[in-house]
Amino acid sequence: NFMLTQPQSVSESPGKTVTIPCTRSSGSIAHSYVYWYQKRPDTSPTIVIDENNQRPSGVPDRFSGSIDRSSNTASLTISGLTADDEAEYYCQSFDNFDRVFGGGTKLTV
Amino acid sequence: QVKLQESGPGLVKPSETLSLSCSVSGGSINNFYVSWIRQPVGKGLEWIGRLWPSASPDYNPTLKNRVTLSLDTSKNQLFLELTSVTAADAGVYYCAKDEWGFDAWGQGSRVTVSS
């Protein structure tokens, strides 16, 4: 099976833009959709990006997703950072019936 | 809107079996997969397995030997059993509606492993 690798932590100032990468270890990043979740302490994860780049209803347009075939990497970009964005972010994809999560990235604003 | 809620004992002894249930409302489990996902203490999210009435369950290969997923369609409930638990199995266990991604999650059930 494949792995999804994320940096353990990123930090950026309020109002700025941050990008969190998620690199697939084997097989093409384009082979299966990538999803992104926001996880705050003591709360359930919530999906912020669906199917590589789709924003579910209620997610601000400051959140965007993309994939780059050349680097085999999916990315979550958050613009206009606020303190409320401080959380852990997880990417997730699948291979046949297996679901795979990245290790998570702690975003500090 | 589909809602999920986990329940179960918060404390399990080492080497014993962890049993959790997931109650689903706002939709029938006959119509979608439900996955179990956990967050071990101090670690990231880990997919455990998924289940649908019309198919065999799929399990994370690393847990396959210890996990059993089942369901009761009449009660719209799903169940997880994890055998031979150790301290590494402590954490929060979630059930989530599985549409390849997870678009609805339960609030989580915290499990402590201790004698």
Q: What do these coordinates show?
A:
The complex is a heterodimer of chains A (109) and B (115). Chain A has 109 residues and is mainly β. Chain A has strands spanning 4-5, 9-11, 18-24, 35-39, 46-49, 63-68, 73-78, 87-95, 98-101, 105-108. In chain A, strands 2, 4, 5, 8, 9 and 10 form a six-stranded mixed beta sheet that branches. In chain A, strands 1-3-7-6 form a four-stranded antiparallel beta sheet, with no helix packed on it. Chain A is globular, with a radius of gyration of 13 Å. The model of chain A has no long low-confidence stretch (mean pLDDT 97). By secondary structure, chain B is an all-beta fold. Chain B contains no helices and eleven strands. In chain B, strands 2, 4, 5, 6, 9, 10 and 11 form a seven-stranded mixed beta sheet that branches.
Short note summarizing the structure:
The complex is a heterodimer of chains A (109) and B (115). Helix content of chain A is 0%, strand content 46%.
Report the sheet with the most strands of chain A, covering strand number, pairing sense and barrel closure.
Answer: 6 strands, mixed
- What amount of the residues of chain B lies in strands? over 45%
State Rg of chain A: 13 Å
| Secondary structure tally: strands of chain A | 10
Largest interface: A-B, 25 and 20 residues
> Oligomer, anyone?
heterodimer
Number of strands of chain B: 11
Number of helices of chain B: 0
Low-confidence stretches of chain A: none
Percentage of residues in helical conformation of chain A: under 10%
Question: What is the 3D form of chain A?
Answer: globular
Report the mean per-residue pLDDT of chain A as an integer.
97
- Estimated share of beta-strand residues of chain A: over 45%
What characteristics describe this protein?
heterodimer; A: 109 residues; mainly beta; 6-stranded mixed β-sheet; 4-stranded antiparallel β-sheet; 0% helix; B: 115 residues; 7-stranded mixed β-sheet; 11 strands; 57% strand
